[in-house]
Amino acid sequence: MDAGARFIIDKLQKAGIEAAVVGGAVRDEVMNQTPKDVDIAAKAEVSSLVDVFPSARRVGRQTESLLVKACGTVYEVTPYKGDGTLKDDLAHRDFTMNAMAILIDGTIYDPFHGKFDIQSRKLACPGACSDRLEEDPLRLLRAFRFQAVYHFQFSRELASAVQKQLPWFDQVAAERVGEEWKKLLSSPYAVAALKQMAHSGVFASLLKQNKRVAFTYYEGVDPSLSLWANWPGIWWSLNCSSQETRRGLKNLARPSQEVQNTVRLIDWVLWREVNDWTAETLYQAGWSLVEAAEHWLRVRTPGAAYDHCELKYMYHKLPIQTRADLPVDGIRLMKLCNRSGGAWIEDVLRSVEKEVLNNRLQLEREAVEAFIQEEWT
Ligand code: ATP
Ligand code: MG
């Protein structure tokens, strides 16, 4: 238990409130990993917690909880769920590995044998799996997310409960679904988890899509890529067009920049399947998109993709990589052409970029300004 958590639990105990570290942080400690965030559960109503930490912020997820700052870190302190005992709080958590607690004396309270399941690399629920999934259908997706993180097997009971629980999944809040997908796609065993999702027939439902898995493009998912660069593999597996992908991602409440990047990527890959890069198109797409597009080309049309080193060389050989590399900017243009700002600046800069990229114009201030004066004044 870290110093901040000890401080908070100590303070609660002094006020007569039993409390313990719970959830993912306990799992991480058992697995010798550093927790991302530490949750604390306490035997009290939120109002009593507020009495102990009057300056803490109240937040509401499913249950109300408090964000308490200690030793420079923020801890979420939540009242025990269920009948008000620690054991019952743990009984309502998603998986046995998340249903352990660290008590104030540092001992681990593990009534559902989470440690044993971690050692046997098994994902199981505290109590009846079908009840746990019914309580909160998001756990269905979380099961695959944890599989993507740890490569654990589902217990037999969990595997069969997953199949039965699908119809409920629609009722889960889009943001929570989107966040779990995000974690899944950036976890080391993402492809293994996706394969099991496809084989157990839950893949499309977990994307809230009424479709079938038509391709195995999900096998091209690479956790080291940015999230936007991984999404195509998921939607292509369902044979979604770029517009269907846009809608699907919006339905999962993904940020608009991410959606835009993904759709742009899809369009570039489809373009690239029938065209080769030119200096102009490499420049237009930009390096991260070029790199991601070639990744998917390698998956979809092996043999058509460039070797990564060669591609990098081609890109870095471009006379300019961004507009900032030009020796003139909008302000200089206004002076040069004696005009006030407007859409024409974009046209001029584009024409300069085009000439420079095609090696018809030297990347020197004098040459570029002479070109502008000749063509645009
Ligand atoms: P991460 O390492 O990604 O933070 P985590 O297990 O801590 O994983 P959180 O979403 O931070 O996941 O949730 C914290 C804890 O709250 C979990 O360990 C689990 O005990 C509990 N929890 C979260 N979501 C659910 C859920 N849908 N159903 C039941 N328990 C949940
Ligand atoms: Mg957590």
UniProtKB/TrEMBL annotation:
InterPro entries: Bact_CCA-adding_enz_type3_sf (IPR050264), CCA-adding_enz_C (IPR032810), NT_sf (IPR043519), PolA_pol_head_dom (IPR002646), PolyA_RNA-bd (IPR032828). Residues 21-123 form the Poly A polymerase head domain. Pfam families: PolyA_pol, PolyA_pol_RNAbd, tRNA_NucTran2_2. Its cofactor is Mg(2+). It comes from the Bacteria. Residues 231-372 form the CCA-adding enzyme C-terminal domain. One of its GO terms (biological process) is tRNA processing. One of its GO terms (molecular function) is metal ion binding. Keywords: Magnesium, Metal-binding, Nucleotide-binding, Nucleotidyltransferase, RNA-binding, Transferase, tRNA processing. Residues 152-209 form the tRNA nucleotidyltransferase/poly(A) polymerase RNA and SrmB- binding domain. Belongs to the tRNA nucleotidyltransferase/poly(A) polymerase family. This is tRNA nucleotidyltransferase (CCA-adding enzyme).
